[in-house]
Amino acid sequence: MELSSFETLLTIRLDMIQTTALGALVLFLGYFVKRRWSLLDRLNIPAPVVGGLIFATLALIFRLTHLVSFDFDIALQTPFMIAFFTTVGLTASFSLLKVGGPQVVLFWGIASVLAFLQDGVGVLMSKLLGVHPFLGLITGSVTMTGGHGTGLAFGPLFEKMGMNGATTLAVAAATFGLVSGGLIGGPIGTYLIQKKKLRSRFQPLPTLAGIAPEGKDQLAEEEKSSPEISAYEILKYLTIILACMWVGSLLSGWIESQGITLPAYIGAMLVAALVRNFFDLTKLVPISQGYIDVLGSVALNLFLAMALMSLRLWELLELALPMLIILCLQVMLMAAFALWVTGPAPRAFLVIPIVGAFFIDFTNALIITFFINIVK
Fold first, then answer.
1. What single DSSP character describes residue 107?
2. Which has the minimum average pLDDT: 107-116, 133-142, 143-152, 259-268?
3. 9 phi/psi in degrees, rounded to 5
4. Looking only at Cα atoms, what is the longest distance across the chain?
5. Around 361, how many Cα atoms within 13 Å sit in the side-chain half-sphere?
6. Distance between CA atoms of 29 and 52, rounded to whole angstroms?
7. d(CA 146, CA 294)
């Protein structure tokens, strides 16, 4: 850690290890605050978002009062981000489609249409308001469908392409979307229940094993067993993830050489999806979803904590009003979509996690990339 002074402002410089360690501490600050303030838990705001925004707000206050500023070495932030999306790819097994059936494909298509509409509305409004068209994408499916993870993945790409403060704007938009979803979801659900006069039939929800094809679904088998954690298994999955990241970086480099703009994680996520389905088909390497989820969660939480604590919140001021206008329109679009497009979903407990956690990331990345290459 180094201390320096520039224009009477004291700057604390942290190296790669110190920055990562601070990110971990900020993450657990978020866990602590969530336990103390139940509202954050009810709104499903992730711990790294809570801790990261607290630190970023304090850093903003310190900067505005000319007390101190921070300079972070975030060299590990991108590898953590790519590692997380690699685990998303390793989760994209075609066996999930068998579990959910046609309803998964249908909802995946509907969710993809919504993502396309979000970007269309965002880009149109950004042009009408006279702001950078990338703000329309940031307030569109980048954050409204993708959330903080996708927002922080595309933010540096937008900045590289000429939009200053894109990462900070993405975090603000994602947080707005997260809170808005928690606030409008209950009232809309209640309205639909009352309007349709819906009543529970008191039938127990089927388990994942009960829905899966008998004796054939690997995911159902995993629900029945909880293998002990072993160093060998952790190393095995780390090796698979790192190998996918390696090959994926080569694929991403080749795609970019063709003049196509993509975020850094796309190559690794595609390679991981191919590897997962190859292993499922050949039975060469059995894949445990539990290990993939744990490693992905670790990578995502550290990535989010590091990205959020290093936000430059002062970059929000100039575009705060246009962004708020577009975000309010996006909330209205999603509310209308929930009211008039989506229908009965008796297996939502199964279908929504499969689409929302895995498959939508693929189509959303393609939709965002399509719009980027149109408006850039």
1. H
2. 259-268
3. -100, 120
4. 70
5. 29
6. 9
7. 20
For the CA atoms of 154, 160, 164, 169, the dihedral, rounded to the nearest 10 degrees, stands at 0
Give the number of other CB atoms < 10 A from CB of residue 25.
Answer: 14
Which residue carries 């997380």 as its tokens?
84
For residue 299 the two structure tokens come to 């990578």
With a CB cutoff of 8 Å and minimum separation 6, the contacts of 232 are none
Give the CB-side neighbour count of residue 206, counting CA atoms within 13 A.
13
Local structure of residue 370 (DSSP, 8 states): H
The percent of residues above 90 in pLDDT, for the chain, comes to 43
For 225-239, b/e burial (b = at least 16 CB within 10 A) is eeeeeeeeeeebbee
Q: Could you give the CA distance from residue 20 to residue 123 in angstroms, rounded to a whole number?
A: 35
The one-letter code for the residue type at 2 is E
Residue spans of alpha helices (H) in the chain = 16-36, 38-42, 47-64, 77-91, 94-100, 102-129, 133-137, 143-144, 147-160, 166-196, 208-211, 218-224, 231-257, 266-282, 289-309, 320-340, 348-354, 360-375
Lowest mean pLDDT among 116-125, 214-223, 292-301: 214-223
What pLDDT sits at residue 223?
45
Q: How far is CA 191 from the centre of its chain?
A: 29
pTM of the model: 0.74
The number of beta carbons lying within 10 Å of the beta carbon of residue 297 is: 12
